[in-house]
Design brief:
Elements: H1 5-24, H2 29-45, H3 66-75, H4 81-96, E1 104-109, H5 116-125, E2 137-141, H6 142-145, H7 152-169, E3 174-178, H8 185-190, H9 192-195, E4 210-215, H10 219-231, H11 241-254, H12 264-267, E5 273-276, H13 282-295, H14 302-311, E6 314-315, E7 322-323, H15 330-337
Parallel strand pairs: 1-4, 1-5, 2-3, 3-4
Antiparallel strand pairs: 6-7
Helix pairs in contact: 1-2, 10-11, 13-14, 14-15
Bound molecules: adenosine-5'-triphosphate, 2-acetamido-2-deoxy-beta-D-glucopyranose (3 copies) and magnesium ion.
Keywords: Endoplasmic reticulum, Glycoprotein, Signal
Protein name: Torsin
GO cellular component, one term: nuclear envelope
Length: about 350
């Protein structure tokens, strides 16, 4: 069993208070000795106590919570039955395999505000004790980290060094590439070797790492399919992965605006799962608003949620089926209504 970090902290406090009083009042020496003895016994049974204070690449800080991920996908993620199933299967399979042949590579696609960053956060939180704050989770945003096309060669070697350095530090590292659409295709190609089936590259094994790509590429064709289902009177839940999969990889691959454009990532099947995110409907936006109110410790108010949801722009204009910005502007809208 893992000792709880809180217990360790408590012992630590006890000890320091014991030591302090000892300096003032000799009678407490007995207490201090008692506490010290307890602590010694404790350290003897958990020799790696040090690791409870500093995040490090060990199971105390990195361990997959399968039920936690499933619960989060079920309760916190709205309207994404396809993505939810793929993510759960993919991450469960990968994290419970002690000897994966290649790193896990996921590519999430969909309109803005449909939950791409949100899903990567849920994954990180159920693997790393510190979630997105973990020093083993790295987010690269193309417009922030790689803004100038002209400095491509510098970015390339920098990115390769970062990935190599970080995986050398901890093989269970997670890399999230945000705004893949805006990334130079050559930059994607330069990380290809890390995603492939190699035992190791220059002595470093990348097989336990996780790579997640986020982009809007393919979002329009996903939305079109969802709209076709809606127009045909079929429920959203009837949309299957196979209705979207081919379409998605084609539209991503052949779209010259996408960071994937004709990259060998797709050519060589290095992406394990293309994850389509469906555009969100009115009822999902209401759910997002309710969840956000709960997160702010204000009593969820259906009336406010409705007002927020009504404020958004929907597509197509006449039928108002899908929220154009998904759940993205809910937070600021709530500030206004609450
Ligand atoms: N499907 C969803 N279920 C629950 N909450 C959601 C969902 N989609 C979005 N949200 C909420 O909206 C916020 C914004 O979503 P997120 O940042 O994940 O969008 P995105 O898909 O990354 O969009 P973009 O393409 O603009 O980066 C999230 O923090 C989350 O609170
Ligand atoms: C895993 O997640 C569940 C649900 O969030 C939580 O109750 C449980 O304590 C977690 N388990 C561990 C080992 O952290
Ligand atoms: C790990 O990646 C970060 C960027 O997220 C970078 O700043 C850092 O230098 C990298 N570490 C190593 C050891 O390369
Ligand atoms: C991208 O493709 C479209 C048509 O598919 C074309 O009109 C446009 O000029 C292309 N842009 C670039 C930068 O190649
Ligand atoms: Mg995002």
């Amino acid at each position: 069993m893992k000792p709880r970090r809180q217990h360790v902290l408590l012992l630590w406090l006890l000890l320091s208070s014991g030591v302090l009083t000892e300096a003032i009042e000799p009678i407490s020496t007995t207490i201090a000795v008692g506490v010290a003895a307890t602590l010694t016994a404790f350290i003897a049974s958990y020799p790696n106590m040090f690791f409870y204070f500093h995040e490090c690449c060990r199971p105390e800080w990195i361990s997959f919570n399968r039920t936690g991920l499933q619960a989060d996908l079920d309760k916190k993620l709205f309207g994404q039955h396809i993505a939810s199933r793929i993510i759960s299967k993919a991450v469960n399979g990968f994290m419970t395999n002690n000897n994966p042949k290649k790193p896990l590579v996921l590519s999430l696609h969909g309109w803005t505000g449909t939950g791409k960053n949100f899903i990567s956060k849920l994954i990180a939180e159920n693997i790393y004790e510190k979630g997105m704050q973990s020093s083993f989770v790295h987010v690269f945003t193309s417009t922030l980290h790689f803004p100038h096309q002209s400095q491509f060669l510098e970015y390339k070697s920098q990115l390769q060094q970062w990935i190599k350095g970080n995986v050398t530090n901890c093989e269970r590292s997670m890399f999230i590439f945000d705004e893949m659409d805006k990334m130079h295709p050559g930059l994607i190609d330069c990380i290809k070797p890390y995603l492939d089936y190699y035992d190791n590259l220059e002595g470093v094994s990348y097989r336990k790492a996780i790579f997640v790509f986020l982009s809007n590429a393919g979002g329009d064709s996903i939305a079109q399919t969802a709209l076709d289902f809606w127009k045909g009177g079929q429920s959203r839940e009837e949309i299957k992965l196979k209705d979207l999969e081919t379409l998605l990889s084609l539209s991503v691959f052949n779209n010259n605006q996408s960071g994937f454009f004709r990259t060998s990532l797709i050519d060589k099947n290095l992406v394990d799962f293309f994850v389509p995110l469906l555009p969100l409907e009115y009822k999902h936006v209401v759910q997002c608003a309710m969840a956000e109110m709960e997160a702010r410790d204000t009593k969820p108010n259906q009336h406010v949620a409705d007002m927020v949801a009504k404020d958004l722009i929907y597509f197509p204009k006449a039928e108002r089926v899908f929220s154009v910005k998904g759940c993205k502007t809910i937070e600021s809208k709530l500030d206004y209504y609450l």
